[in-house]
Amino acid sequence: MSEERIHKLGRRMGQLRGAMVFLIVFSQTAALAALAVVVVSIYDRGTTSRHILENVDTSTRILVDCTTPGHPCYEAGKARTGDTIAQINRIIVLVAYCTKQPGNNSVDSIERCVAVGLR
To answer: What is the pTM of this model?
Structure first.
């Protein structure tokens, strides 16, 4: 082989080596970028899952509080329901009383009598 041919072959090998180094560096950079995307995606999903679990936990605590006798929410709801039923019963008694009073022979007069009784 001639010296010139050897020189060309050496230059060609240098170019191929440079191209190989470039491809290796490029592929490793691309792999690292893909890995970073995967890590960020997993982190985001974990953060989202943590928020969902916190919301579920809060909802569960509220449900337990409002459906378990002795818990504050349950007792408050029971009291409100009891107050409402007591008011309905009071109105029923007043309507019965007002319908038996002389002169209360129309819906308007009975309503006025009940309104007076509720004051």
So the answer is: 0.43
Q: What is the pLDDT of residues 55-72, one digit of tens each?
A: 888 888 888 898 899 999
Q: How far apart are CA 18 and CA 9, in angstroms?
A: 14
What is the CA 75 to chain-centroid distance, rounded? 26
The DSSP secondary structure of 49-79, one letter per residue, reads HHHHHHHHHHHHHHHHHHHSTTSHHHHHHHH
Residue 55 tokens read as: 């919301």
Per DSSP, the chain holds a count of helices (H) and strands (E) of 3, 0
User: 104 near 113, Cβ under 8 Å?
Assistant: yes
Distances (CA, A) of 22 to 26, 34, 75: 6, 18, 73
